[in-house]
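User: Show me a protein chain along with its predicted structure.
Assistant: Here is one chain, sequence first, then structure tokens.
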Amino acid sequence: MTTKIIIIDDHQLFREGVKRILEFEPSFDVLAEGDDGAHALHLVEEHQPDVVLMDINMPETNGVEATKELLEKYPETKVIILSIHDDESYVSHALKTGALGYLLKEMDSDALIEAVKVVAKGGSYIHPKVTHKLVAEYRRLANTQTNPGFTQSEVRRPLHLLTRRECEVLQMLADGKSNRNIGEELFISEKTVKNHVSNILQKMNVNDRTQAVVTAIKNGWVEVR
């Protein structure tokens, strides 16, 4: 099944680079490009894409405003925000408008392709570097409100559910490491890391990495550091 995509970004060279990466994936079809949030609405109306890659910073209508307007009119469209900002306030704002993904522009090609595939299926994808900061901040705020003197108790690895290696990979996901980083640290291939992540998601009954990390933090299975 083909995933129809539109790219909205005011930097032409960046758009071309993203398009080139996506076109390597046989199941992707890049239908159109635009350079402003207002333009995005017209392109979505014309092409009815599955996924819109939306830059957060644009001169006229920014990505967050455009996402909000777009999803009010076309709620079935799935949006991934592209940004240079890894601050959790930007991420929270983008997700509250209805975006299902948040990618930093420093992403590698594998992360971009994986994000589009996950979001196209209705899941969510947040750049690993941002995931760690976001869940750590939510954890801090929640514990400050409920227990000002909170300190995290001893981590209980979910060995009843995951293998030792999968527990190790889960901790690295919580640390915000990409598949490539994990592979380098564990001296295994990136393909093997992907297999571990897939097994973790299946065993934990979650749809994506972000849900896996949030669930692990809630259950005390990983350290937030």
